[in-house]
Amino acid sequence: MSIRKTMTACLFSAVLVGGALAVAPAASANESGALSCYGSAKSYSKPAGNRWYPQGGPYLTATSNCSDINIKPNTTTSIAVCFLPSSGGSYCQSSFKTAPAGQWTVVATDVRDGTRFYFDFGSTTANSGVWAA
User: pLDDT for 63-90, tens place per residue?
Assistant: First the structure.
């Protein structure tokens, strides 16, 4: 192999490795953010007979660990989030999302830290799992 071909092959390899290293920190940052969010997950257990968790408070609060409200139920369920603004009252999302069993589902996005909320399940059957916000 000529020196020119060898140098070209070496430079090409260096560019590929450098590009992969430049992308790795971004992927790692996204994974660590998700781990930080899901790592702070809290368990819930909604009894049969009502649609809301928690019912009557104390309500849940969004934290700086996550920018979204996420849920991972043990059984597939329909879910919406109801917000409790500091001005009083409450309002709920206009549609339910299907949250598959054993999978994280984003229920609400871009939620401010300190936002108080509760979950509205699509039925009165018992449900349990974990949530992160």
Answer: 999 999 999 999 999 999 999 998 889 9
